[in-house]
Design the sequence.
């Protein structure tokens, strides 16, 4: 399905996306400091919608050309933003409990990893099934251990 | 306490659900379109929640520095990238590499913003993360079956 070159591009894109995520968290944190978590997320989704509209020329043709007939796209596929927005509410509640930020982040990462393993195992939500390989399990262990050390070493 | 633990864990799972749904939409349309839908749907929902519970925009909420308006646009690029990635290399590898990039990027950003030296413990963590990324890169993503 995927060639080694696409694999490499996707791996690098994932690393870059992660770095962008840190930048985003920093910027949204600045907004939250002034207006709170709900305001920050609302502002980010609003400015993001505007930004995506400004680059319509980049995606309009692609969706016109897309092979799948509109009717073949399940309605639930449009609800990614719903899950994302609910996440904000849940994490901003958890962060104000005894878990604090580090506990919320650590449990959140655990939840993400457990979900992703299940998603690949059963091909959840229409994305192809994938078998977990030994190398992936080792890589996952190294990254989780390393992240724990970085978080612990930065407290 | 147990409620908070479940809440934080499920919130993490929902991050994965969101990526999976946007990835599914991107497969049939385009990654940027999936990111647009993600932000529009989230904005509508958060506006509705804000109207119901009130106090969405407090006094001085907009008084932050100019860059508070750029978290959203950066998020658009992030969601578009991850929507494409998940269809290419699957959820597990996407998740671990995004976490790796996030932690390494976070360390770099903290260092750039505060100039504080990276602790030896954190440095060991960075070495492990880089090793993990190299191990992941050494093998091809398993093909869909």
Sequence:
């Amino acid at each position: 399905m995927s060639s080694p070159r696409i694999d490499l591009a996707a791996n690098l894109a994932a690393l870059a996306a992660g770095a962008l995520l840190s930048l985003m968290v920093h910027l949204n944190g600045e907004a939250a400091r002034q207006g709170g978590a709900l305001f920050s997320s609302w502002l980010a989704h609003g400015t993001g919608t505007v930004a995506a509209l400004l680059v319509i020329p980049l995606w309009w043709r692609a969706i016109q050309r897309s092979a799948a007939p509109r009717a073949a796209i399940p309605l639930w596929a449009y609800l990614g933003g719903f899950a994302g927005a609910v996440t904000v509410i849940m994490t901003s509640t958890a962060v104000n409990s005894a878990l604090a930020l580090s506990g919320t982040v650590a449990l959140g990462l655990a939840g993400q990893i457990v979900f992703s393993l299940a998603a690949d195992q059963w091909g959840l939500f229409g994305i192809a099934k994938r078998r977990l390989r030994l190398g992936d399990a080792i890589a996952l262990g190294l990254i989780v251990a390393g992240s724990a050390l970085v978080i612990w070493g930065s407290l | 306490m147990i409620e908070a633990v479940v809440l934080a864990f499920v919130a993490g799972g929902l991050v994965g659900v969101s990526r999976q749904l946007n990835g599914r939409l991107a497969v049939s349309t385009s990654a940027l379109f999936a990111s647009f839908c993600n932000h529009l749907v989230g904005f509508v929902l958060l506006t509705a929640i804000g109207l119901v519970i009130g106090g969405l925009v407090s006094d001085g909420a907009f008084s932050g520095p100019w860059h508070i308006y750029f978290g959203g646009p950066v998020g658009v690029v992030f969601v578009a990238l991850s929507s494409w990635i998940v269809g290419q290399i699957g959820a597990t590898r996407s998740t671990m590499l995004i976490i790796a990039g996030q932690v390494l990027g976070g360390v770099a950003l903290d260092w750039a913003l505060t100039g504080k030296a990276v602790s030896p413990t954190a440095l060991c963590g960075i070495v492990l993360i880089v090793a993990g990324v190299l191990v992941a890169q050494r093998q091809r993503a398993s093909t869909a079956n």
Notes: Chain B has a mean pLDDT of 92. Chain B has one domain: 2-138. Helices of chain B lie at 2-28, 31-53, 71-114, 120-138. Residues 89 and 127 of chain B are 23 Å apart (CA to CA).
